[in-house]
Amino acid sequence: KTKVAEKEKGGITQHVAAYEVVSKDGNMVFLDTPGHEAFSLMRERGVLMADLVVLVIALDDGIKPQTVESIKKIQEFGSTAVVALNKVDKAKADRLDIVKRQLADYGLLPDDWGGDVPTVAISAKTGQGIDELLEVIRLQADILDLKTSTTEPAQGVVLESMVEHGRGSVASIILHRGKICRGDYFTCGATFGKVSSMQDCYGNQLSCVGPSVPVSIAGFAELPQAGDMFEFATQSQAKKHKNLQNKIVTNTNTSRISTNDQGISIIVKTSTLLSKEALLASLKKLSDSQEVKIKIIDSGIGDINESNLDLAATTGALVYGLGVKANKSAIAKLHKPVTVKQFDIIYKLLEDVEEVLKKNIVKKVEEKELGKARVKAIFRVKSVGVIAGAAVEEGVLQKGAKLKVFRNGEQIGGGVIKTLQKERTSVSSISAGSDCAFALDGFSDWKIDDEVHCYIENLV
User: Fold this and answer.
1) Whole-angstrom distance, CA of residue 459 vs CA of residue 347
2) Neighbours of 210 (CB within 10 A)
3) Containing H/E element for 284?
């Protein structure tokens, strides 16, 4: 009922969304990770961060490549899994057994088939089976005997990070233990900070938060990386961390690579760090599969700003934004036009880039030889100019085709056949064993015994 996907553009999840569910079985925190192939890294981190994994499979689709990838991660990390078989309200009766057989083939044997993986048929649309799913999750949690401490120094993990207007660098955090309060200092990966504000998953302001509660924290000196360890620190510890990091040259907010490679230059801006990672990975995969390559000139988090536009104007790069806005006043100030494209859905952006790549393919010209002839006589006609009389020795000569002219084995010129005659009658082509007369556009300096090669050009 949280409808995370519906809140995002296109009805698909594109971020790691953390939300708390209140049920009769107790409160539970869910990390909703995207299913689109571009977000494989997000799914991997979701499996790593969670105490228990709910693998959602649509009964009408069955196991897809992204499902297989998730199963492998569950098995690799030794995670406890519950399988939710969705769309039971509209699936055919035999789909349950078909999908369970697929699960068994991949090493997840359903509990009702003698295995240890609970499977629950649900409908996210009607709510069928949801209470049973929550009950199964609670039972699995009880078996795992999940416990933590609220008295130890706070420690947690970054789910996602972004730049928010009015709040600055912000990260979604879940604590594993301890509690953190507004005004507390902390360290987090390569960055640090002081908690200036905290919000729960519904936007409510918090003064303190404990373990297993998704919270958005502002006050970071720089954007942290997803997966970074978040830890409570004293003011002096945070200061030492700051001094240490000042000695290290890092840049977590932007990413720039060499522009020496040939290809289409692109500047990328996204709303969150994980979105940037997913988009850059997808662009690399797309580039590797295309003849024309992608050059990422710059990438970063937040709206498209004047600096991005100036760089695009200088380099000729296209600017792509995913879930961000563009500074209209900065665009108006530009002295040189810049192409800015904004998208809310990642696969729409990738489709656009693919179209740009295809339009920029430089087609190669392939020559196809049609025939050869040798000049036997030379004439001058007032209305036409110089005409060569020749014997066709191989293949055909064709009006409108091109000729290369060779003398003593070296090419000395060429042109297009503008007139072609046989016995004073105009023809479109003439074959080997026949005599002909022709005139070229672009060449008239004929000599007896010149050899001509007739050919056409094809774009490949």
Assistant:
1) 31
2) 15
3) helix 273-288
Bigger pLDDT: 325 or 396?
396
Token representation of residue 7: 């809140």
Model confidence pLDDT, tens digit, residues 106-115: 999 999 999 9
- In the numeric block, the tokens 């005004």 are attached to 183
Summarize pLDDT for 176-232 with one digit per residue, the tens.
899 999 999 999 988 999 999 999 888 899 999 999 888 999 999 988 988 888 999
pTM exceeds 0.70, yes or no: no
* Run of H or E residues at 287: helix 273-288
The two three-digit tokens of residue 327, written as one number: 């500074």
Q: Is 21 within 8 Å of 2 (Cβ atoms)?
A: yes
Q: Give the pLDDT confidence score for residue 332 in this predicted structure.
A: 80
Both tokens of residue 100? 């369970």
In the chain, what is the straight-line distance between the N-terminal and C-terminal CA atoms, in Å?
54
Is residue 252 predicted with pLDDT exceeding 50? no
β-strands 365-381, 451-459 pairing: antiparallel
Instruction: For residue 404, list its beta bridge partners.
Output: 414, 453
Q: Where is 86: in which H helix or E strand?
A: strand 80-86
- For residue 407, CA distances in Å to 59, 342, 393, 412, 455 come to 74, 59, 16, 7, 17
Instruction: Tell which residue, 85, 72, 61, has the closest CA to residue 133.
Output: 85
DSSP state at residue 363: P
Of 126, 67, 153, the closest CA to residue 102 belongs to 67
CA distance 150 to 18: 20
Three-class secondary structure of residue 248 per DSSP:
coil
Report whether pLDDT(313) > 50.
yes
Residues sharing a CB contact under 8 Å with residue 391, sequence separation 6 or more, in sequence order: 373, 374, 376, 434, 435
Give the angle 383-385-390 at the CA atoms, nearest 5°: 120
Domains and CATH numbers, the chain: 4-144 (3.40.50.300), 155-246 (2.40.30.10), 254-359 (3.40.50.10050), 365-459 (2.40.30.10)
Residue 110 contacts by C-beta under 8 Å, 6 or more apart in sequence?
A: 83, 100, 103, 104, 117, 118, 119
User: Which tokens go with 192?
Assistant: 């640090």
pLDDT category of residue 85 using cuts at 50, 70 and 90: very high
Most confident of 41-55, 255-269, 296-310, 392-406: 392-406
What is the sign, positive or negative, of the torsion defined by CA atoms of 43, 44, 45, 51? positive
Kindly give, in sequence order, each residue whose CB lies less than 8 Å from that of residue 22, ignoring residues fewer than 6 positions away.
none
